[in-house]
Structure formats: C-alpha cells, structure tokens
Amino acid sequence: MKKIVLVISFIRLIPHVFFYKLSKNKKTIQYDINRWLAITQKEKRLGFTTLMTFYPQFRNLFYKRLGKCSYLIKWLCPPMNTLFIYTKDIGPGLYIQHGFATIISAKSIGKDCWINQQVTIGYSNATDCPVVGVPAYIVKRNGVKVFEKL
After folding, report:
1. Does residue 134 share a domain with residue 67?
2. Looking at the structure, do residues 9 and 69 belong to the same domain, yes or no?
3. Enclosing H/E stretch for 60
4. CA distance 25 to 45
5. Are strands 114-115 and 120-121 parallel, antiparallel or unpaired?
6. Do 7 and 51 have their domain in common?
7. Model confidence over 60-91: pLDDT tens digits?
8. What's the rounded Cα separation, in Å, for the pair 128 and 139?
9. pLDDT tens digits, residue range 95-125?
C-alpha cells in the first residue's frame, strides 16, 4: 500500500523535482535529503518522494530552499501550517523533528542543526537575534529552552 501511495505522490511531485534540479540551492537540498534519510532510516531510492509525502516538515524546509518559485507548486503538496521558518541563512542539513508549533527566526543557522517540535527561536528584544552554531540540537524540555552544541 505504501508503494502505491509513493507512486501516486511521485506524479504530483514532478514539478517539485523540476524546480529542485534547477534550483541554485540544489547541493544544499541534496544534503538535506541525505541527512533526513539517514536520520529517518529511509532508503535513498525513493527518498525525495518519501520525504515530501510523509514528512510535511521537510516540505517547509524544501520550499524555503526553493524561494519564491515555491509558491507555484506548494498547492500540490502543502507545507505544515504550524511550522514557520523565517531564517534566511540556513546551513545544509537542518533537521526538524515533527515541526508542530515551531517558529524558527534566527539570524543564521549552521550546518546539521536539529530542531524539535514546539520550539521558538527568535528575538529576545528588538535587536537581539540568535545565531545557531554548528552543529546544534535544540529541544524544549519542561518549558525551558535548551541549547546543546553537539
């Protein structure tokens, strides 16, 4: 059944593959795909289709990497509506686990960052915007912000 879903999903993702292959961020997107597949332990053969079909939080990152042209194709595979990514400078390999109720608004995020659900990264005042280093693991535990450099 899962294979049938992937085949049907692949058809709707053809425009996504087209934009991905032509993107100036192609190498970064490929790095993201490889990292997500390694973490989720999914096979590479249908990797992009699997991630876009079953991981809506990956869609948000993918559309962020594509930029403005993503508005032409988002309707085919909608992003997660409770995950907001405002950061412009995001290193390759950002992994967002679940992404529910998550807001990412840092000055920059380094390579191989891992962000869990219900996390808000943002300003503490009008000018203080955080910079997330390389690599970092960000999780919310008991209502407390925890930043761990790996």
Report:
1. no
2. yes
3. helix 56-66
4. 21
5. unpaired
6. yes
7. 999 999 999 999 999 999 999 999 999 999 99
8. 20
9. 999 999 999 999 999 999 999 999 888 887 7
User: CA-CA distance, 132 to 138, in Å (whole number)?
Assistant: 9
Given a contact cutoff of 8 angstroms between Cβ atoms, the answer to whether 65 and 23 are in contact is yes
72 lies in the same domain as 98: no
Tokens of 103: 């807001």
Overall pTM > 0.85? yes
CA 24 to chain centre: 17
Is pLDDT of 147 > 70?
no
Contact 83, 102 (CB under 8 A): yes
Domain of residue 133, residue span? 82-150
Number of domains in the chain: 2
Tokens, residue 139: 């999780």
Of the residues 35, 60, 80, which one is the last residue of a structural domain?
Answer: 80
